[in-house]
Design brief:
The chain has eight helices and eleven strands. With about 250 residues, it is α/β, with parallel strands linked by helices. The protein is globular.
């Protein structure tokens, strides 16, 4: 075996009914299964550790349990999803967790291999904080404020895990070096998650509505792994209908 030490990862999925643009979205159905339960299923299939949904809403808890998942109720006054997962992590009191992976509850089409990959990179590089990004396929994404872009120190490849220099919603030209579509999945070393939630929100974070800027503002390193695909996040009715169509078509013809 050599000096290979088993590391322990916990996957937490923050989810709440009160989304500003599409209230109740975690419980919208695709193939008769709620969006949040689809995410749970994908996380489970990655098979890298326990998976728990962290929610403030009893109906989300009920839905996840009914579909064979695991969930925990958290406080309803959290400013961010990270605060929610930290509370869940403390409440669950699972011993010896090395990494906590924060998975968005509104990306039902997330690729399990991307989750596995990020976890492997974190362990291999003994990283503090890691996330995913995909290649930008369409230049229109560069000037779409809803698309978060990440700029990395080096070009992203399948085998490297470069540092993030910045995250932005701004319009960027394609001439910017090493710019990718950021996918909001985070893996934290347990001690780094604890440090992160104890830091005050920075102005930069509030202005851009991007939590990860708090980490960069406080000199925490974020490494970025290449994702094979960009999952569609469900923010609007339109997103929901388009992903529903894609996923239902896939099931039908697989």
């Amino acid at each position: 075996m050599g000096n290979f030490i088993m590391t322990k990862t916990l996957i937490l999925i923050p989810s709440r009914m009160a989304a500003s643009r599409l209230p109740g979205k975690p419980l919208l159905k695709i193939n008769n299964l709620s969006i949040v339960s689809h995410v749970f299923k994908r996380a489970k299939e990655a098979n890298i550790g326990e998976v728990v949904v962290a929610t403030e809403d009893q109906e989300i808890l009920t839905d996840v349990l009914k579909n064979g998942g695991r969930a925990i109720l958290t406080n309803n006054n959290h400013k961010t999803g990270t605060d929610r997962i930290f509370e869940a992590y403390i409440k669950l009191d699972i011993k010896n967790v090395d990494y906590i992976l924060n998975l968005q509850g509104d990306e039902p089409d997330i690729d399990k291999n991307d989750i596995i990959n990020l976890n492997n990179f974190m362990i291999k590089h003994d990283a503090e904080l890691g996330t995913l990004a995909a290649k930008i396929q369409d230049d229109k994404m560069l000037n779409n404020k809803n698309v978060v872009k990440v700029i990395t120190e080096n070009k992203l490849g399948e085998n490297n895990f470069p540092k993030a220099l910045n995250f932005t919603r701004d319009n960027l030209s394609i001439n910017n070096q090493n710019i990718y579509h950021h996918i909001g999945i985070y893996s934290y070393k347990a001690s780094v998650l604890e440090k992160f939630v104890s830091l005050d929100q920075t102005n930069n974070e509030k202005e851009n509505k991007l939590e990860q800027l708090r980490a960069l503002d406080n000199k925490l390193k974020i490494n970025v792994a290449l994702a094979k695909s960009s999952p569609i996040g469900v923010d609007t009715e339109e997103d929901y209908l388009s992903i529903k169509k894609i996923m239902e078509y896939k099931i039908k013809y697989e």
